[in-house]
Amino acid sequence: MRAGLYEFMQWRKASSTATKSVASGRGAALARLLLVVALAVPAGACSSFNNLFTKDEGVAPDEPPEKLYNEGVFLLDRRGDYKDAAKKFGEVERQHPYSEWARKALLMSAYANYEAKEYDESVSAARRYVTLHPGSPDAAYAQFLIGSAYYERIPDVTRDQGQTEKAIAALEEVSRKYPDSEYAQNAKKKIEMARDQLAGKEMLIGRAHLDKKQFTGAINRFKVVVTQYQTTRHVEEALLRLTESYMALGIVGEAQTAAAVLGHNFPDSRWYQDAYRLVKSGGFEPAENKSSWISRSFAKISPFRKDQ
């Protein structure tokens, strides 16, 4: 499920292009942090970083925060060494915890760990940033990182979806707290994809019940899709499966309603064709009962209704 922040913020250029990155809207939070390097490091200094340290070299306890920070940026930006970059940013916070450099390094640590696929560490750093600096202009990005880290660990539908639920909760915080930020729209897109995953899980379990002729259990699962995940791609099949389950139980009225609602909202759907044939095979026609839970729940939240 990895979508990567690169699609949202192609900021990874040398510090001389950081200002251009801000102007083009490719991730203002990280561009601001990289711009610090452009202001703090003399021209040509980056080329000397290779000689300043090696991977095995310990960090002197009295190193200036800007030196540690810039070394971290060099490792991240020029070498793509995200794990060691995260360590450098961590040293800034450890050695100079109350400095402005520590604030910047905390967010960079969250990003570096995200790129290194160290998602627990990324979430931990980003959460601390949001807690310690809720009014920062970069708090929206930190919250977005939290959601993205959970999102990257969304498993396939056969497994537990706890990570999916955490991703949705964290990304919804971006939309709720920072609706005007550059990350809000991307957060909404990820939320929709994550919700589709949860709907897919319900469909998987519902089909399994249906195969075993456990119709009540199947109906309960398909009902969740119709009432909670109606804007996902699974709702059409869920309505067909409800038609199938209710017909099997002899609850014809609900089967007719499920087929009718499917036809009203998705007339060209292949699932509707199947539902129509199923109802007709029993000698009935699709007919919507407005008092049915299917009709009421669908009419209340569906963006597809034509008769509202």
CATH class of the largest domain: Mainly Alpha
**Which structural category fits the helices and strands?**
mainly alpha
Topology order in helix (H) and strand (E) letters = HHHHHHHHHHHHHH
Q: Summarize model confidence as the mean pLDDT.
A: 84
Beta strand %:
under 5%
User: How many β-strand runs?
Assistant: 0
In angstroms, what separates the terminal alpha carbons?
36 Å
Query: Could you describe the largest sheet, including whether it forms a barrel?
Result: none
Q: What do you see in this structure?
A:
By secondary structure, the protein is an all-alpha fold. The protein has 2 domains: 5-198, Serine Threonine Protein Phosphatase 5, Tetratricopeptide repeat; 213-301, no CATH class. The chain is 65% helix and 0% strand. It is built from 14 helices and no strands. Helix 5 runs antiparallel to helix 6 and helix 11 (235-249) runs parallel beside helix 13. The longest helix has 28 residues, at 184-211. The model is unreliable at 1-26, 38-54 and 302-308 (pLDDT under 50).
